Amino acid sequence: MKQAWRKYLAARAPRYTSYPSALQFSTAVDDKVYQEALSRVSLYEPISIYVHVPFCKQLCWYCGCNMRVENHYDRALDYVDSLIGETRLVSAALAGRGRPSSVHFGGGTPNYLETDEIARILDAIECEFGLTDDARLAIELDPRLIKRGHLAELARLGFSRVSFGVQDFDPDVQLAINRVQSFELIESCVCDAREAGIEDVSFDLLYGLPRQTPATFAATIEKTIALGPDRVSIFGYAHLPAALPRQRMIRDRELPDTDGRAELSLMADEKLVAAGYGRIGFDHYAKPGNSLFSAACAGALRRNFQGFTDDVATTMIGLGASAISFASGVYAQNAKTVKQYAACIAEGRLPTERGVVRTERDEAYAKLIAELLCQRDADLEEAGRILSGGEIDNIKQCVMPFVRDGVVTFDAARIRMAPGARELSRAVAAAFDPYAGAAPALARVV
Amino acid sequence: MEQVERIMAHRTVPQNKAILKEGEPNDCLYVIVSGSFRLTKYLEDGRRQVTGFLFKGDFFGVRACDESAYTAEALEDSLVCRFPHAFLEEISTASPGIKDRLIARGQTEYHKAQDHIVLLGKKSAEERVLSFIELVGKSVGATADEDGEGRVIPLSMPRQDIADYLGLRLETLSRSLASLKKKGVLRDIGRKSLVLSG
Ligand code: SF4
Questions:
Q1: Would you call B45 and A95 a contact, using CB atoms and an 8 Å cutoff?
Q2: Is the minimum distance from the CB of A249 to ligand 1 under 6 angstroms?
Q3: CATH of the domain at B24
Q4: Which domain holds residue B189?
């Protein structure tokens, strides 16, 4: 990476998995607003369903997710009942409209739940929203909880995509983050998945972890390449111990600095690309032939709460505590704690706690930012149909420093990321995003 | 009305052949004389949605348009009658309301859209499957089975189409049919027909 670009790496920017980001959510959006938004979904509109499972067996010290360590499976069973209750409430509001194109189980740890519970949730989704064989089922898995035959069971339920939380293969790093899982364990999980006929296997890796060095992380990437997952995502660890007390278990002095982080991320990028993976967005990689790769080539890549995706549904139904939905221009987030969430369902009320209604102006910015992140090429002319001339001029002015440094090029009609600058696309977006300036405590770009 | 029926042109449509294609212009009204059709449309995500089934006496192509909103394919060798909309317009000056009177004798693609919403609103797989069977029975007319204790409902569409239409996975459809049989609601399950009890 060019020397002049490095200064942007320390910049903080939203992850842009939604726009406006969750920082703009307020209690102005409640269950009534969400219900009304659901009633405006059209008959055969593709909908993407996300199911949040907020339980884990053990705490990873880097964790920034909404989860809790749960030792009583009974509580998880109660939670599954609430989830099923929520499918009924949402489906009453949809009244037969919408058609699921995908179901994604995330967490927490979705495989904290036994396969029977996962099957019950799928059945409820089928009865309430309709679920056909062409819908894509995906699940995030903690390798440490995978038992013999587990992946075959999931494949039988129709799951065709699994992602394993790998993070790092180095034993010393694993100790420092309290997530110990051997290479052999991951290897056998991948074998099981392949044997079960699961066609899309993905690894989640993290850089910026304590005790990571270029040498240890290079070994992690090499092991990853050896196991040959179809997709890899590499996220930067966001160390925010003030906001997330659990991260205080991680020693600040063991963390790589900004330059160190950049080095790790660029090295991983080089290795994966040399091994034949294609770059997707700024933090995903996929093998040629994978549907994410094809979507990126076709300019059809999208960004949603799960990151970069080839899912074309605009409407998202989030089920479970803290899950976020997007329907008819409304973002709606559920109550964050399991207790509050379950209480709403018990009262027969949609558990919406906060959210934001996207305005036409937000929509224009959302589109520009998504284009920049997904296609590295944003259409200002199109945005100018909604945004005023003054606003477009302001956007241009905001990205001027990036133009001077060669990070982006632009003309009257478009902003384009320069080759090799994709890591900085969030920083560029944040520069002209009217909400970003005011936002506190954002994650670093790298 | 008789004048209309004399003019109508019959046309045979072999199985799997589309008579109307999504996105293509349509200038005729069709009535099914025999056989059955499947209505489908492509969704934004590229998947195909089965939106309805049409049987003898049903109409489609109710409005002339530059781009049909759906595809209509024959599920079996079928016979249709077609009325060019231009012709219907012409004669409607002489006998106003002729088109409406014609259509009033059967169901149209718009009725089918209504049926679909009602079916998708049913919350158990078995309920959805049973309502569907009854709906088909009403449209095609059930015949008594050999010992006169069951009603035979012919099913010209493949199972996968039924599952897609009902928003169910194929396996769930099979399971629901098996369960309805176990409960005695169905007497028999065949590939091309079902027998309802009583
Ligand atoms: S498994 Fe995931 S959600 Fe659970 S503690 Fe670890 S990082 Fe957090």
A1: no
A2: no
A3: 2.60.120.10
A4: 124-197
Nearest to A200 by CA among A104, A287, A296, A299: A287
Q: Pick from A319, A341, A368: which residue ends a domain? A: A319
Mean pLDDT of chain B, nearest integer: 89
Tell me the CATH number at A444.
1.10.10.920
Sign of the CA dihedral running A118, A122, A123, A125: positive
Q: Which letter does DSSP use for residue A436 in this model?
A: G
Q: How far is the CA of A118 from the centre of ligand 1 (A)?
A: 19
CA distances from A356 to A13, A23, A28, A34, A48 (A): 19, 10, 7, 10, 19
Predicted local confidence at residue B5, as pLDDT: 61
Nearest to B117 among A91, A96, A131 (CB): A96
CA of A261 to the centre of ligand 1 (A): 22
DSSP A45-56: -EEEEEEEE-EE
The Cα–Cα gap between A60 and A144 comes to 12
Calpha distance A193→A202 (Å, rounded): 11
Which atom number of ligand 1 is nearest to the Cα of residue A107?
3
Q: Which residues are CB-neighbours of A11 under 8 A, at least 6 positions away?
A: A427, A430, A444, A445
Query: Which range of residues forms the domain containing residue A108?
Result: 22-319
Q: Is B61 helix (H, G, I), strand (E, B) or coil?
A: coil
Determine the distance separating the centroid of ligand 1 and the alpha carbon of A175, expressed in angstroms.
Answer: 15
Q: Which two tokens stand for residue A101?
A: 């194109």
Q: Whole-angstrom Cα distance, residue B81 to residue B40? A: 21
**Whole-angstrom Cα Rg for chain B:** 18
pLDDT band of B26, cuts 50, 70, 90: very high
Structure tokens at A381: 């002319």
CA A305/CA A362 separation, integer angstroms: 17
Instruction: Tell me the CATH number at B177.
Output: 1.10.10.10
Q: Tokens at residue A14, please?
A: 């939203």
Is B118–A96 a contact, with Cβ atoms under 8 angstroms apart?
Answer: yes
Nearest to B49 among A97, A99, A313 (CB): A99
- Whether residue A351 is contained in a domain is answered as no
| Percent of chain A predicted with pLDDT > 90 | 79
Residue of B nearest to A47 (CA): B45
Convert A313-338 to b/e letters by CB count within 10 Å (16 or more is b).
Answer: bbbbbbbbbbbbbbbbebbbbbbbeb
User: Quick one: which of A222, A120, A88, A105 has its CA closest to A165?
Assistant: A105
Residue A442's pLDDT is: 55
For residues B13 and B76, membership in a common domain is answered with: yes
Residue A107 in contact with ligand 1 by CB distance below 6 A: yes
Give tens-digit pLDDT for B95-150. 777 777 777 777 888 888 888 988 988 889 999 999 999 999 998 888 888 887 88
Chain B neighbors of A45, CB-CB under 8 A = 44
Write down the mean pLDDT value for chain A: 93
Nearest to A100 by CA among A124, A76, A67: A124
Which residue, judged by its Cα, is nearest atom 6 of ligand 1?
Answer: A60
Q: What pLDDT score was predicted for residue B3? A: 60
* A412 token code pair: 């009257």
Say yes or no: CB of residue A109 within 6 Å of ligand 1. yes
